[in-house]
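Support request, please re-run this one:
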Amino acid sequence: MASSSPIGRQQRLPALDGLRGVLALVVVLWHATSPIGLTLFAYPAKFAVFGFFVISGLVLTRSWEGRPGVFLLSRVVRLWPTYALCLAVGYLIAKQPVDWRQFLWFPLMTPDAEPHIDPPMWSLIVEAWAMPLMPLIVFAGTGPLWRAWIACVAAFGAYRMTADPAWQQLWLSLAYFVGGAYCARFTPRAAWLEAAPAQWLGKISYSLYLSHWLVFALARAALGPIGGLLALPLSLPVGWLVWAAIERPSVAASRRVKAWLSQLPQTALAEAAR
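Re-run finished. Output below.
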């Protein structure tokens, strides 16, 4: 069930937190089972990633304050430490030459990009490239339905006209972001998503999403294709540890940075008035 809600509220949405956790678990299950030939979670995992884009568009639109610079810097502080840690560990596991550009979310990637350092990171790179367009996403999504529709049609048109698969992923993600921005006017509710198990998964979903592949890679190196499935229970506490050690401090730091930057103009005006 969803109720109408004005744009700009910044309170957390427990149902979306829980949904994010469930979607992350679907991706984890796909990566655990696919090496042994199970395809049950193939399409659910694909749609789960699109669901992440929709949720991001919704949540970020609700908290949008119209200050792109503050928004971008706080997002970098929020997302980069966990991303960089998992990417670095992925290179250590893969024993591949480091492409340092990837630590700056570059270049655009597809889910099957080589080498497989930490494949889930492709969607984080796509989201990072989409974030500078957040003012346009908010503009398209918070107006009348026809405006969101035109933006989505334009994004799908660009997707169809683009030959590069990585750029196709970017254009496609923009349509999902706009869809999420339009849905920001509603407040979703679902008891099962607001229950404790889903909320716990939602809390660690970002860390779990980026770290589980690394756990599975080590397990498969030691035990073969079945290793990922056997290591599935271990991926959850590892995700929690990454959340506790890296992501949680990053979230707190991003809030402090946002609060500090938001006060800068008022501080400057106060000094000028003296």
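Residues 2-273 form one domain. Residues 269-273 have pLDDT under 50 and may be disordered.
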